[in-house]
Design a protein that fits this description.
The chain has twelve helices and 13 strands. With 490 residues, the protein is an alpha+beta fold. α8 (289-305) runs antiparallel to α9 (309-340). It starts with a helix and ends with a strand.
Amino acid sequence: MLVTAKKSIRQLKVANAKLIAVVFTAMVILIAYFVANSYYNSLAKSKAEVLERLKAIVFTSAWLINGDDHDSLASTLLTKDAIVSNQQNRIYSELHHVLKTVYQTNHLESPLYTIVYYTQDSVFHFIGTSSDQPYYRHSYKNFPKDLLENYHVGGILDSYHDENGKWMSAFAPIKNSKGEVVALLQADEKFEMFITKARSELIQNTILSLVIVLPFSLLMFGYLSNTLEKQAKDQVLLLNQKEEIEAQRDFIEKQNRELDQRVRERTFELETTNKELANFLYHSSHDVQGPIATLKGLESLAIQETKEPLTQEYLLLIRDTTMRLERMVKAIQLVHHIKTASPNLEKVCLKKVIQSSLEATFLASKEKVEINLPEDFIINTDADLLKISLSELIKNSIQYNEGDSCLRIRISGFTTTEAFNLLIEDNGIGILAEVKKDLFTMFKRGSEKSTSVGLGLYITQISLEKMGGTVCLVESNQAGAHFQISLPYP
């Protein structure tokens, strides 16, 4: 008996150590998720800003170049290095002056240049440049295919490799007096500078995550350690009691009754502790709201006190990260509420539930929402769960819209032999094809523009499942996203 009890204690200690390791690993994964998410969002944002800047520069500057003179220059001097000095040719000198002025005015780090495509050798040739040293008629062989495909309209080039390195570019057509495209104006930016900026922000977010999570982790580990230590002490106490029973056989019956009672009490405590551990993440999400509120207050005070632009930029990054954390905590609480709630089916007016959902999302304007349902249409459902489902879909429509002023949402319904169906359609940017298959999974976003935590459509799905309903994305030739909710007849 003693050998078995000691073995159980060893097993308990091993299990406790594994539990602590699992919790620690979960915290590390959570921090890594926030840091990685921030890193890739920062990289995408930086790339978008630079590409838009380069695009504005080339499309504006292309009008400053005389297309007829450029065509004449490229058609007359047909050999490589026919121009070796910026002052050698009048037309080239004027072209170089325009390009250098644009280069200096916009503080570009890489030279501007014009290129012409020649079908004879299927390559682009460099013509003019803002550089102090011309490279007239040098070949550009490893060019991106988009450069040729959009030769007549211009555009942007996301990160790509060529013989000179990795770049991000924008290009615009240069036209002659007849409106014909005679060349392209291209501006570049080295890709390495974006990686450097993103890594710098990654370090900042890592430090911020540690500052926020470390105190919370210490409290959690302290709680776990105390609980597990109490369990081990209880096991030791039981072992001592059993040793006393072995030594005092005259009192076996009495001791056994007492021991049984204590075992039942300890078993109840263990079951209670396991339930507490199961709900630990949910309750912790409540506890972390206090530190989040404090952090928001400190950030607000700090941004009012400092006038330093860089410091204000860092504080705004802290504000964004804090708000994302706060949204995630609230979403986790809502998921827990839905999963533990019991549906309360009752007859409700569907149009009133829809109107309540619109008001919850601050979108009750009749000009933006068209509801094609009878005023007195009654269904048997859980009003709160249906309201949550509709609110998340409406929030989705608001977020993936080009602008609130042009937002339009249409809500209509129809019945089949087995279910009542509700269609929610908008005129937003729609859902990317590559994310459709995982659209209703946790932490999945429908677009790179999304700033949500990726739980909205997941919440819609689990709310409807509680009532025996479903939600799906409906394919349509019209713009926007089209969702269908199906609720079974009672």
